[in-house]
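Posting this for the archive.
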Amino acid sequence: MRKRNCGPTIAIPCRSWRRPVAWIALLSFLLNPLLVLGQNLNDSPTVLRPGDIIKLSVPGRPDLAAELVLDSSGRAILPQVGEVALGGMSVSDATLFLKQKLRLFYPDDLDTLHLEVERSGSTQIYVMGAVSRPGAQAYEDIPSLWDVLRAVGGPLANADLRLARIIREEDGIPKVHSIDLVGVMEGRTIPVFELRDGDTLIIPTLLEGTSGVPPTQGVKVFGGVEVPTIVPIEEPMPMMDVLMLAGAPNETANIKVIWWVHEDGGKAISTLVNLEDYLQQGSPLGNPQVYPGDTLHVKYDKTGWFWTYVPRVLVMMASIITIAIGYDRLVNDN
């Protein structure tokens, strides 16, 4: 019997090449999981986080060597590219990401790009308010909220755990994250919130607590803050700290206009404070000492009627014109 050929012109029996190809395909299928596993074992499980120091090197290209330090938002400056966001990435993902960025300027010689990560040391979490041992706490790794509460000796009897807040700097602006910690002390589920290096945990006191300071002797804070309240203090405290205990100025606040009512020589004096002078220039006049019994009014940032209504009118007019043009074309086409 004549063997069937694989093609019309090449008289090579099918079995002569199909069997080796089949074996190769089978071996590739069986070995592929092992290769993937090997790659996963070689990948570093390290996840980049704020404060990490990343040393970038490319053999034969000393001009591309760089040392990157991740800031509080997980970003760093790569001289050849600019700002890059690496926080939360694995080392392998960060390597691939930087290769893609650098290839826009250096198409060659990047296959050997290597990253070496050095931990900056301990993670700093700051705790303020009604806890046994307030202050900075250092950890080797990112702690949980339960770890932090245990490290500071737990909350005081007059702590208001429902109004706990975490202050975090994001893009140079303090952001407030409200969190309810009652469940932690009652043995229920601990809230899922990933802390970052430099976070500040604030545990406020109950207004009717046992701090020994009557609410009327605290600092009354209202206006553009997250939690208008009376902040109980026993001694002078910088205005910025008092505002942070009230949840910090919110997005509607005008921190250039804060009215501070305080007593001077038995007479109530109202002083205008520009907190932005302190935040941008470090001027002590923008962050004066506030005393028990004082009042702080953070003014709202009121937008003028022109910028409030004119854009809306323009958008409405543009929509009407677009509909009219579409209708006119539809009628003319028909």
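Residues 28-44, 208-215 have pLDDT under 50 and may be disordered. Residues 80 and 102 are 7 Å apart (CA to CA).
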